[in-house]
Backbone:
């Protein structure tokens, strides 16, 4: 399966969060994810949180990447011809499976992310808690002299949640 990767450079400025959201919204539309899909809202919130964390906690430039699976006409989500049962892998070098959208924010700070549990009146400290609640998977890995924090949302799961179930909620333990 092929993966389309798009990326933008982020300056260490809080105004970059809004610019990243606008840029991501246009790339989502270009990948076939409509602005009215629950998946689009989820991905934009995840992007906002990860870019905010990079800008606020590192003060360094960063790179935002989005990876989309590419499904060609006549091919199934795993890259095989429809109806072809021969072996094949839905995984790629980036680890993106069929129907999975991956968001990554890489920065030059080697300090690992730390998930906090904010108290009720605190104005910050909920970013990674939101990422944990909204993404199907997330994590981080060393990249060059810094790190990359990533999250993945399975498109099929997101569509099912949007169509059948109440959205997942993240609580602060109250």
Residues:
């Amino acid at each position: 399966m092929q993966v389309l990767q798009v990326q933008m450079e982020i300056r260490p400025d809080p105004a970059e969060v809004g610019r990243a959201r606008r840029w991501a919204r246009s790339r989502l539309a270009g990948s076939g994810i409509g602005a009215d899909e629950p998946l689009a809202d989820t991905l934009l919130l995840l992007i906002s949180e990860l870019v905010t964390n990079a800008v606020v906690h590192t003060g360094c430039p960063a790179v935002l990447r989005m990876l989309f699976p590419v499904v060609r006409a006549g091919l199934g989500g795993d890259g095989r011809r429809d109806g072809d049962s021969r072996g094949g892998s839905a995984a790629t070098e980036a680890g993106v499976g069929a129907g999975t959208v991956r968001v990554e924010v890489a920065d030059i700070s080697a300090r690992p992310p730390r998930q906090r549990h904010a108290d009720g009146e605190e104005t910050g400290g909920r970013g990674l808690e939101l990422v944990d609640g909204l993404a199907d998977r997330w994590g981080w890995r060393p990249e060059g002299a810094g790190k990359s924090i990533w999250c993945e949302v399975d498109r099929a799961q997101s569509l099912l949640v949007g169509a059948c179930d109440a959205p997942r909620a993240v609580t602060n333990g109250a």
Summary: The helical segments are 16-30, 38-58, 127-134, 155-164. The chain has four helices and five strands. The mean pLDDT is 78. Strands lie at 2-10, 62-70, 100-107, 137-143, 146-154.
